[in-house]
Amino acid sequence: MNHHDLEHADPPFPELGEEVELFLETEAREGVLLYERDGELQKKPMAPWERGLKARVPVHASPFRYCFRLPQGYLGSHGLERTLPRYDRFFHLLAKPLPPEWALGAVFYQIFPDRFRQGRPELAPKEGAWLYGGRPIRKKAWHEPPGEDGAREFYGGDLFGVLEALPYLEALGVEALYLTPIFQSPSSHRYDTEDYHRVDPHLGGEEALRALYEALEARGMKLILDGVFNHVGATHPWFQKALEDPSSPERGMFTFYPDGSYASFWGVKHMPKLDYASALTQERFVFGKEAPVRYWMRLAHGWRLDVAHSIGEGGTNRKNARWLRALARAAKEEREDALVFGELSYDTVPTLRAHTLDGAMHYAGFAHPVMEWLSGRDLHGNPVELEAEDLWRALFDHYAALPLQLRHAMYTLLSSHDIPRALWRLRGDKERFKTAYLKTCTSRIPRINLHPLPRAAPDPGRGAPAG
Q: Where does the Glycosyl hydrolase family 13 catalytic domain lie (predicted)?
């Protein structure tokens, strides 16, 4: 039996250049540590240890890639192999900055503010108060089912309502809240931001955010905000200037094409995409002291980066790793123990191995395979035949491929505001639902999604308006 994980690295969270001792539980009496440096494989003979073998080596790069050569083969991230594994099957160890210790194993609870709980009814938008997409917004009664107007429909939940619910959430064992966007926006999902420095007044403004933050601090709980830094709302003044004046500095913050069209999130024209090749975009979103990723670290403990896999230059995700790394480091420069994880909807491994973020929403490596196994259908409703062994292979393959420290920091979920709710996908089968949540709670960062509260969340099958 050969075993190696983060618990076998001392220190487990090294500084770049610091020596780390790597331990391998094995019955083998001899072995060699192989690690990649400057394109070459270096060799370090291992010394005896009471439960196997050990070797000490400096972490010269992040990620630091290595495997073990033993008499019976090569031990990498995916197990024992007869021949030298590819680099992507080596163990990957990162150097600091790394996920904060408070986040490892923390129980998260996601909240969609407009639909969670109403603390001050007078804050709710009025029927027809403004136009969205050329049509008046709708004010819905709290228990009225969602209609066809989607993001035009407002229920009037607010941050004071979240504050009222803290005793209940704390009793559930929740340790951190993740709020979907709270900054001023014309839609109920608020993924089309028009002012990054103003908490939406219909949610209670900065007064409510401060009260919530202070109450969470008093309970030893944490607050994660949703950072929509891939795109802005079309009503944002910066984009309006770019539209109105092609010679304005703001024009370069976005990618315009010769025919006058512009890059946007998924082709949705009311969500124009930011261009990080622009020095002004870089100043306003990354490096400047007023950049929202920095500015709000006084009232939050971290960020979830929306569509993190799409952030980049020239209307694409070019240099994506560079800008994810820069956004994460900006937050950590303001708050050393900040957690910054991303919405990575597909394969998370290439991005996370590039030492960019503290983790990611675990769709591909957890939510999708678990729900396919239990429901017999994929995310889009297509029939899937997944045996328990197939599930194990999928989960292990993703887990093993992650850098060692991030195995403990993935945001593990079954559903979210962006995909159908788990209980609905299981057709109301509560026993299977319990099985799914039991599996979630064996993960590193279990996440609870919008559980119903008095005067709070809707039927879990309906979901919240997606952004």
A: 110-462
Strands 9-10 and 47-49: unpaired
- Cα 198 to Cα 240: distance, rounded to the nearest angstrom: 18
Residue in 125, 128, 141 with CA at minimum distance from that of residue 201: 125
Read off the pLDDT of residues 238-256 as tens digits, 9 standing for 90 and up. Answer: 999 999 999 999 999 999 9
Q: Say what the pTM is.
A: 0.93
Q: Where are the domains of the chain?
A: 6-93, 101-449
By DSSP bridging, strand 40-45 and strand 73-76 are unpaired
Closest CA to 97 of 400, 359, 351: 359
Question: Looking at domain 6-93, which of 3.40.640.10, 3.90.1150.210, 2.60.40.10, 3.40.50.150 is its CATH number?
Answer: 2.60.40.10
Give the catalytic positions in this structure.
Answer: 306, 343
User: What's the count of helices (H) and strands (E) in the chain, helices before strands?
Assistant: 12, 23
The domain made up of 101-449 has a fold known as TIM Barrel (3.20.20)
For residue 9, give the H/E element and its range: strand 9-10
Contact in structure between 137 and 131 (CB atoms under 8 Å): yes
